[in-house]
């Protein structure tokens, strides 16, 4: 039912970047010591994506409603092209995500260690916290025994 | 002959300035920020996003502040904004089975895999106003309990395997209807109907759902499952040759399960209504699923006798931006229209007076509206036209004088 494609490392990295908050990504970009020379090939530009659902959860697709999406494409001086598509309207986030996507092709280890790993850990911690907060509201049913025998 | 009337420019400009002033209110009270609305009026934001049919919390929060909290006005603002943006594409269908669940309850199965997760709900509160909120009291952090990470499959997928509930129909779809791109034409496919319902007015759908419970198209509903949480949104990017994960959105899904006695082709089984809405919007998702099911009456061979079963009635009136547009336009100047009606009425009155016996007439002085002498209005009779609002969706003739206003 799920149409998740086979996730390549690049797709996974782009997902980690798109899940980051603009603020957090801005911090990570600010902390990146050796900022590359680059130019913007496209954007950042904001548009809409029509989000689809499925009737009954798993049936025929229908158009649920739109979401704002910002995209950017950058090219590093060394030739690598980076792309980003993120929900929301934050142009800086899109450009920084595209830059990290491009840097990933040039300097994978540094991007992994300094950007993706911390983001992944923070997102996992936030997800775990949400799960645990929700788990505290799980109903534990018990049976009331009435009468003597 | 028309005499075009113009005017009101200064009045309108000043009215808008006054609106801005009143919106801001007492300047000694701090101005609202978007993050305050997003964090503390989150469900209003969700409603503006859902019915505005645009997922963007900041825009919805801005619309709520700008509209002074008038949510239909906020929805209107959100809808207007979306028309200014280009469309990048259509996402892959979201997978609600893979949701990061924040709330999940079933009224049909007590012990279901994953359990009953109440989440941040108003249910079981006593609906007593809490004065400590007014005093700005500190609020405790949420309680944490280590999650057992048990998967929580959709209830309908569990029941599905026993053949007692109708399965999801997943066909190859040549096209998926998009009401933002094409005019509304009846009958609709279920995809178009679900799109319309997803952005339909909560109050209208709630009332219609309630009407089915009260007997106007009874559908014997049970809440199979409600789940709220975030899902991943993915978009195929042709130039990259793969799908990109855009991030997560929060949605509410409701699976309504309905008793169905079967027909010649289908054995007795549970049928289903579906609700899916942006944000945390449980009442809306429930109402949507009730109305979705009742609109399937024809498809399931049930009698179609009630408003909630009438697709054209429901979908033509479920959009609150359309509804408010047509209702509220009545307050705009209709001076010429009304003069025409007035002239016609005077003529009809005059004919009536000549035909009817004198004793049944009201005193002559009260017959003329506004006491104007008849001779001043020698308007020619207008052709009889249907009363305003009788033709749903029709655009009224606008006279030059009205257009100038």
Residues in helices of chain A, as a percent range: 40-55%
Per DSSP E runs of 2 or more residues, the count of β-strands of chain A stands at: 3
Task: Round the Cα radius of gyration of chain B to an integer and report it.
Answer: 27 Å
Order of helices and strands of chain B: HHHEHHEEHHHHEEEHHHHHH
Q: Can you offer a commentary on this structure?
A:
The complex is a heterodimer of chains A (149) and B (405). In chain A, 44% of the residues lie in helices and 27% in strands. The N terminus of chain A is likely disordered. With 405 residues, chain B is α+β, with helices and mostly antiparallel strands. Among the domains of chain B are: 51 residues, no CATH class; 191 residues, no CATH class. The relative contact order of chain B is 0.12. Classes of the chains: A alpha+beta (149), B alpha+beta (405). At the A-B interface, helix 1, strand 1, strand 2, strand 3 and helix 4 of A face strand 1, strand 2, strand 3, helix 8 and strand 4 of B. Strand 2 of chain A pairs parallel with strand 1 of chain B, so a sheet runs across the interface.
Which features characterize this protein?
heterodimer; A: 149 residues; alpha+beta; three-stranded antiparallel sheet; 4 helices; 44% helix; disordered N terminus; B: 405 residues; 36% helix; disordered C terminus
Structure summarized in a few sentences:
Chain A is 44% helix and 27% strand. Chain A is α+β, with helices and mostly antiparallel strands and 149 residues long.
Helices and strands, with pairings:
The complex is a heterodimer of chains A (about 150) and B (about 400).
Chain A: H1 9-19, H2 22-31, E1 38-54, E2 61-76, E3 81-87, H3 91-106, H4 108-135
Antiparallel strand pairs in A: 1-2, 2-3
Chain B: H1 9-24, H2 34-40, H3 42-52, E1 54-55, H4 57-66, H5 71-82, E2 87-93, E3 100-105, H6 131-134, H7 155-160, H8 190-198, H9 202-213, E4 221-237, E5 242-260, E6 269-278, H10 282-294, H11 311-317, H12 320-328, H13 335-355, H14 364-367, H15 400-404
Antiparallel strand pairs in B: 3-4, 4-5, 5-6
Helix pairs in contact in B: 2-3, 2-4, 3-4, 3-5, 4-5, 8-10, 9-10
